[in-house]
């Protein structure tokens, strides 16, 4: 009986071994899937916007930036290009979400859903879906140069040529070179006039000039047509400083004395570096894809999917 019981026990063990191993395999597989899920979750990126209590999912943040930075009635391919540039810019600026970013023009403007509803009013659903689709269709796409995220600067409207980073800041970046941009042909508000009295001018620029002296103003321009230096008598300013002090739309401007007024006429809108938003829209209207737009404005770059850090 002992022998029979032993044989029976041995047969039972042989019979149940496959099930034991199958169960073990299932547990290992489940553990592997759980581990893989943790790895995927570890790659999810969030952005902390200064002034907000909770971090925001990267793609939701990009939706808020595209909504704030580019008109929602622009071509879908232009909106996609803006999404890729905005995503790249925030990841570069915050080291993949490790630091906060200001929701201002100095960085990137960001609109939350409530602000978008207020701004778009009856068009909210249409524009929200359009922007969301543009962002989702480019999910995870960023711009690299030699394997590194670029500083994806962009501006509203060029003067026919974008500005180089060297002209703008003195630092030359190979992907921020001056390129042709025909957006001025499509923008209704390409030129803008702003008038000052002599008292306003002197107060803003901290001078004591007369209108006659201003009639002899000298302006030096760089190779993209933007103002490099403004000279009046012994007074000299950098074009960027004049733009800031007079609150002008761009550094491509001309100054004229008309009667008792000083009239400053600007062309384009913004610092001029990187992608022109109106230029992107013009290119899209002419059949360019988002990737073609990106590679036109950011020379010798690659568009890739985010790799987790």
From TrEMBL:
Q: Which Pfam families match?
A: SpoIID
What InterPro entries has UniProt attached to this entry? Bact_Sporulation_Assoc (IPR051922), SpoIID/LytB (IPR013486), SpoIID/LytB_N (IPR013693), Spore_II_D_firmicutes (IPR014225)
One GO CC annotation, please?
outer membrane-bounded periplasmic space
The residues the entry assigns to the signal sequence are none
Biological process terms from the Gene Ontology for this record are: sporulation resulting in formation of a cellular spore
Sequence ranges assigned to domain Sporulation stage II protein D amidase enhancer LytB N-terminal in this UniProt record: 56-145
Which PANTHER family does the record associate with it? AMIDASE ENHANCER, N-ACETYLMURAMOYL-L-ALANINE AMIDASE-RELATED
- The protein's name in its UniProt record: Stage II sporulation protein D
Q: What is the lineage of its organism?
A: Bacteria, Bacillati, Bacillota, Bacilli, Bacillales
